[in-house]
Every structure is written in structure tokens, then in C-alpha cells.
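Need C-alpha cells for this chain, all 321 residues.
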Amino acid sequence: MKLKIFAGLLVLSLVLTGCTSAKSTENYAMDGNFAQAVMPVEMPAPMEPQYAEEYGKEMAYDEAVTASGMQTNSIERIVIRNADLSIVVDEPLEAMNTIGRMAERMGGYIVSSNSWKTSNYKGIEIPEANISIRVPAALLNQALDEIKTLLNDKELDLLSENVSGQDVTKEYTDLNSRLKNLEDAEAQLKLILDEAYKTEDVLNVFNQLTYYREQIELTKGQIKYYEESAALSSISVRIQAHEAVNPITVAGWKPSVTVSKALQSLVNALQSIVDGAIWLILLIIPILVIILLPFYLMFLLVRALVRRSKRRKLEKSKISE
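Here are the C-alpha cells for all 321 residues:
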């Protein structure tokens, strides 16, 4: 009987601590058999990882537990930094290989790389390439500077550069707290398993342990993903040859530039028309309605009075006749 009561109290404590997002394990019998006390009414549903809700906010998070089990009162910010570049060089394939060697030299690695050829308006094949690498986060700026040294003119040959950062400290801390709760629940279920003697009871507790072990492994995998993503920054580089971006030139005339300017002018004109329509609908028309509505109502009232006066005069004239 004591074993049944202990098992029921354990399940109730797991529900109150919010170890899982499953439905509450209600209606377990204190006076029933051991299986009813251990097995919840419904198997807890797997909990999904929590994604960024308050990106960029500086907040302090306590009770952090790392994957190794070390507990601290505060942790460093966990920020995932990535970069995307689009550059123009003389030899795209050579630049791609140089960037790959740089990543390995810095202690990183090549995630993917590919190259292909396109044809320009003259039918000449022009090589292009893409490469994605990972380098230590502390060396991200240095890696970007080394990539820019491949350019002849940093002002013209750097087509685009985007460096982004995602603060996942809250998600990382929540995962560590969840891991601790799951491990505590697993330890308590093991104690129940040691005291179980019926085959049905053993199977029920074993199923619970299997579920919690799966959740523990999933949570550890999510924690590892955040740690690796924060430790190694990703850099994606699109590499083009100068021939691919230089405009078409015919006897000093650059028709592609003229086409580009004409399209830009068309976009600007359409934008002005749409902007004007928006201002007209959302601002000017409501103001005119508010201003003119009283005058219109007064006009209707005066017209109604005039018509009524004319009808009375007409009726009087008919009576006098």
C-alpha cells in the first residue's frame, strides 16, 4: 500500500513541476493497483523546442544548467552570428578554393561548395561559384576581412554583405532547465522500477522511462545544436566573374544601363501613382467627407424646407381658385 501511495505522489509531483507539456495525469487511483498509480491516463506529448520570442533583448537568465551538468547563476550570451556575401573577382574558382583553405586554417570547415559556367551576350563561358563555410565565431570578422582582400576594388566588387546575429540565450537556458527536470523525473521513475514486482507494473514504468529517455536525448541534441551554432559562424559567399556583371557595351554605348535606368524610372512613376492613391484614399477623402458633410446636410435641410414652402403655396393657390 505504501508503494502505491508513493507512486501516486510521484506522478502528482511531476505534473506540478511542469516537467512535460502533457495533459495532467488526473484520476489515478490511490486505492487501486500499482499500474494505475504509475501510468498516466495519457502518454505525455513530446515537447517542441522553444524558438526566439524576444530577439535582441538584454535579459538575465538564472538557474542555467549546461549539458555537462554544471549549474551556474548566470551564463554568457549565446549569439548565433552568420554572414552572406556576394563578390566579384577575376577568377571565381581560385577564390572559392582560397576561401575553403582559409576556413580550414582557422579551425573551421567547408559546408558546401559548387561551381558552374554561364554564357554572356557574346557566347563566352563565364565561371561562377558558391561556397559555404564555418569558422570560429571569434574569427568571423577576420574571415570577412580576408575574403575582401580577394577583391580588386572593395567599393565596386563587394556587391552585398549581410551579417546577422540571433540571441538564443533564453532558448538555451530553457532547454537546460527542461533537461534537469527530465533527468529528475527519470531518476524518480527508476526508484519506482526498483520496487515494482508485478510484470504489468514493470512494463508501465519501463514505458515511462523510455519516453523520458527519448526526451532527454532530444533536448541534449537541441542544446548541442545551439552550442555548435554559437561556436562556429556560417559564411556563405557567392562569387562571380567581372565579365558576368559588366554591362553590354556597343561602341561606347551601354544599352543595358539605359534599360536599367528606364525600368527604374518606370518603377518610380508607378510608385508615385500608388503613393498618391493611398494618400487620396486614406487622408484626403476622409478629411473632405468630414468637412463637407455638415454643409451637405444643411443643403438637404434647406432644400426640403423650400420644397415644403412651395407645396404649401401651391395648395393655397388651388384652394383660393
